[in-house]
Amino acid sequence: MTKILIVAQSEFATLVRSKAFIVTLILMPVIMGASVFIMRMTRDATDTNQRRFAYVDRSGLVGRVLEAVAEVRNQTAATDGLARFEPVAVSPVGRSNDDLRLELSDRVRRKEIFAFVEIPPEIVDPDSSSEIRYYSDHPTYQALPDWVQVTVNQAVLSERFRAAAVDPALVARLTKPAALGSVGLFERDDSGAVRAGEEVDEFRAVGVPAAMMVLMFIVITASAPQLLNSVIEEKMNRISEVLVGSVAPFELMMGKLLGGVAVSMLLAAIYLAGSLGMAYYYGYARAVTPVMAAWFLLFLVMAVLIFGSMFIAIGAACNDLKDSQNMMTPVMLFMMVPVFTWGAVLRAPEGTVALVLSLLPTAAPFLMLLRIALQPGPPLWQVLLSVTLMVLTSVAAVWAAGRIFRTGLLMQGKSASISEMIRWVRQG
């Protein structure tokens, strides 16, 4: 045990002093901060270009409304950061429908107009199934078609109300929807008084749990792969041959693994402290409780043991970094499962998909943490079952990695294949 701790201490010191650790420690918060800054800066960024479009109003009732609404909109478009919409009427008289459409399409291609709109003659008829047709070579631009749809529909409704002798203002007042406010549950405090629930804060309910899962992913991806680089570097420089003369291969591997755990804990402590400081500054300090921090650290240790064992095994089985990149692909795919599926867990944290994924040992450190952070949280038996499966998996991963490490550490020449690694685990 003493030798394991000595190796762990040495590995921790080596990893912490490495340039990769320093870069990761500094660069990750910078990237996250820059991402938040860019999102804030571009959140309200809109298209302010002039969008000139043609319209063919076969009903004769909607076109003038388009022009009137566009004129009102354009008066404040610049100050509101909106694009200017300039509708241009095109008469359908004297040309077939296809000839007119081809002519307008050519005008779009020549950049004379941005798009053109067709309004069918029976658009006002409530029994008609006709639709507004919008033509453009910019299918991803939605501001103009959305505005056209809303404006035309408002004009159509007004015309229908007029034909039916119904006051549109009365209809709007009577059909005004009721607002919905999301509030927490009532509870009784220590003094026996009934306390009303707080209004639900969407960021606190969703953003904080998601941020904790992302933080877990950052710490794991920053610390676990360093173990692979450490093993390969020592193997390539023949340092491992000297080390196994003083300590047993399993003791060497466990020391490295515990050193990796210590590095991840250090990263987590630094990032958690920074995150708590930001949460306190923005008034979300109560969202991160000591219990949540404890779950975070527990799942972090399990994740480092599982993935760290895999990376150490790959490092022992490979002779250079190039070969290890191919071997890392399956492990990285396991690590990416939570990234691909966390949205489904967020939408239905108590659903079957969320339960199955949070019990998968390689995904549980991320997704079970997410479920615990989401109110009201999973049942205790699911959490305990997930922790049990992670503990068993980490023990199995350490045991299998120990066998691969013992056989592959001193092997030189050709890197081992996955089938050979499986054989080493089976035969010891």
Structural account:
- With 428 residues, the chain is an alpha/beta fold.
- The protein folds into two domains: 50-168, 3-Layer(aba) Sandwich (D-Maltodextrin-Binding Protein, domain 2); 202-427, no CATH class.
- Helix content is 66%, strand content 6%.
- The protein has helices spanning 2-17, 19-43, 63-75, 77-80, 97-109, 143-163, 168-174, 202-236, 239-243, 249-281, 290-317, 321-347, 352-359, 364-373, 380-408, 418-427; strands spanning 50-57, 84-89, 115-119, 133-136, 187-188, 194-195.
- The strands form two sheets. The protein has a four-stranded mixed beta sheet with strand order 2-1-3-4, sandwiched between helices. A two-stranded antiparallel ribbon has the order 5-6.
- α3 crosses α6 and α8 packs antiparallel against α14.
- It is elongated, with a radius of gyration of 31 Å.
- It starts with a helix and ends with a helix.
Question: Can you give me a brief rundown of this structure?
Answer:
Helix content is 66%, strand content 6%.
Mean pLDDT: 83
Multimeric status of the protein: single chain
> How many DSSP-defined strands?
6
Which structural class fits the helix and strand makeup? alpha/beta
Spell out the helices and strands N to C.
HHEHHEHEEHHEEHHHHHHHHH
Outline the low-pLDDT stretches. none
Largest beta sheet: what is the strand line-up? Answer: 2-1-3-4
- Cα end-to-end separation: 22 Å
Report Rg: 31 Å
Q: How much strand?
A: 5-15%
**Domains counted in the coordinates: how many?**
2
Shape label: elongated
> What is the tally of helical segments?
16
Question: Major sheet, described briefly?
Answer: 4 strands, mixed
Helix content: 55-70%
